[in-house]
Design brief:
By secondary structure, this protein is of the alpha/beta class. It has one domain: Spore Coat Polysaccharide Biosynthesis Protein SpsA, Chain A (Alpha-Beta Complex). 42% of the residues lie in helices and 15% in strands. The protein contains eight helices and seven strands. Strands 3-2-1-4-6-5-7 form a seven-stranded mixed β-sheet, with helices on both faces. β2, α2 and β3 form a beta-alpha-beta unit. α1 runs parallel beside α2. The termini are far apart.
Length: 233
């Protein structure tokens, strides 16, 4: 049985791919990386293929088009589960998720079913973020927390799943294929009484590339939150 799989969805992250791989290799041993690229037009695929040809533990799935960050996570988790990985770590490729946290998450996953990160435990966790992004992130956190009555920072993508304990179908119960997958999956797993642990994280602002979240994503997320709220009321 394989041990650790790191799932990294990408779209137009050519400048960040090499850097994130270097950092992962710096901090970890005995792992494999699965990139899921939504047919990036900027050369991301070429950059990943170059790294894949140099290192045996890098895999790549290329999808035909943008299909949503949530669907990429579900695909990666399902792929890892079917390949027999015990631990599946998911993370972003934009430089905001430092691989230095993964080792701690893997250790804590021995005592929990899911380890996630919390951006609100430390006062300077979001240092360097522009005001509008910090405001929207904090506002979303409190709206989700208040609406669904969850004590977690549930919207982060840096996670460690213990696939020995979590049923794949319980993760896939989260229907949203976009950003709402993150809080929806936590909501479902929490209701099913899986043990969820948090670790504090410091998240710098993205340096290279641009955020993929649009204003329409924010409005849809609010709508979908209300759908889930009234469905479970």
């Amino acid at each position: 049985m394989n041990k650790v799989l790191i799932v990294i969805p990408t779209y137009n992250e050519k400048k960040n791919v090499n850097l994130i791989v270097k950092k992962i290799f710096l901090y970890l041993k005995n792992f494999k990386i699965l990139f899921i690229d939504d047919n990036s037009p900027d050369g991301t695929k070429k950059a990943i293929k170059y790294l894949r040809n140099k290192k045996k533990n890098i895999y790549l799935i290329v999808r035909k088009r943008k299909m949503g960050i949530g669907s990429a996570h579900k695909l990666g988790i399902k792929w890892g589960y079917n390949k027999g990985f015990k631990k599946i770590v998911t993370m972003d490729c934009d430089g905001t998720h430092n691989p230095v946290y993964i080792k701690k998450m893997l250790k804590k996953s021995n005592y929990s079913d899911l380890v996630i990160t919390n951006r609100f435990i430390g006062k300077k966790s979001l240092a360097g973020w522009p005001f509008y992004r910090k405001f929207l992130t904090i506002l979303r956190h409190f709206i989700v927390r208040l609406t669904l009555k969850m004590p977690f920072d549930s919207s982060g993508a840096l996670r460690c799943y213990d696939m020995k304990n979590i049923k794949l179908n319980d993760i896939l119960l989260a229907k949203d294929n976009g950003y709402s997958f993150f809080w929806e999956s936590i909501f479902i797993l929490n209701k099913k009484n899986y043990k969820i642990l948090e670790i504090p994280i410091k998240m710098p602002n993205r340096i290279e590339g641009n955020t993929k979240m649009k204003l329409s994503d924010i409005f849809y997320a609010l709508y979908y939150l209300m759908v889930v709220f009234f469905k479970n009321k």
